[in-house]
Design a protein that fits this description.
With about 210 residues, the chain is mainly α. The chain folds into two domains: about 1-35 and about 175-200, no CATH class; about 35-125 and about 140-175, Endonuclease III, domain 1 (Orthogonal Bundle), CATH 1.10.340.30. About 50% of the residues lie in helices and about 5% in strands. Strands 1-2 form a two-stranded antiparallel ribbon. About 30% of the residues are buried.
């Protein structure tokens, strides 16, 4: 993934310039750190739905997913039952895949359990934040930390959380800064990460 010039003349990660939806997502969301449990749960679920599909497919349906899954409030989704599964299978605005729908409901229950144990989903997932990389940026599909978080979640009963899916989640939620070295957003994301108080961890000095 090389950089390409964006519409404002600034270089961006090449993947984001294929559609305006990607550009807006790249510039305002991707890589910026997130501590909100609902947003973290949403992203884990949507990454699961993306399996075998493009992110653009999911991104264009994101508002429909939010409406269908109670805004990804996992306490509410955890109470979904068989009638909700059938309702969701009939919803043309989302990806109608029984396994992924049932996994989302299951994962909501597991998220609720995890929050009871750890205090927040954010505190748990951020405990798997990788150390700063050494050397220049290079693309990877997974890391030791995404493998570890994947194993941890699967041990807790989560589904559709393989290490590649989890790494995509970590990229998007700011646990890593995977903007290309030449991308204009890389420094902005790094500043946001430096100022970000890690959930459940002591305050850090300037990075």
């Amino acid at each position: 993934m090389e950089t390409r010039e964006g519409p404002d003349g600034r270089p961006r990660c090449g993947w984001c310039l294929s559609t305006p939806d990607y550009l807006a997502y790249h510039d305002t969301e991707w890589g910026f750190p997130v501590a909100d449990d609902r947003r973290l749960f949403e992203k884990l679920c949507l990454e699961g739905f993306q399996s075998g599909l493009s992110w653009r497919t999911i991104l264009t349906k994101r508002e429909n997913f939010r409406a269908a899954f109670a805004g990804f409030d996992f306490d509410r989704v955890a109470e979904f039952g068989p009638a909700d599964v059938e309702r969701l299978l009939g919803d043309a605005g989302i990806v109608r895949h029984r396994g992924k729908i049932e996994a989302t409901i299951n994962n909501a229950r597991r998220a609720r359990d995890l929050v009871r144990e750890k205090g927040s989903l954010a505190a748990h997932v951020w405990s798997f934040e990788p150390p700063p990389p050494e050397g220049p940026w290079r693309p990877v599909a997974q890391t030791a930390e995404s493998v570890a978080l994947s194993k941890d979640l699967r041990k807790r009963g989560w589904s559709f959380v393989g290490p590649t899916t989890v790494y995509a989640f970590m990229q998007a939620m700011g646990l890593v800064n995977d903007h290309h070295d030449g991308c204009a957003l890389r420094a902005e994301v790094e500043r946001a990460r430096a100022a970000f108080p890690r959930p459940g961890q002591p305050a850090r000095g300037n990075l």
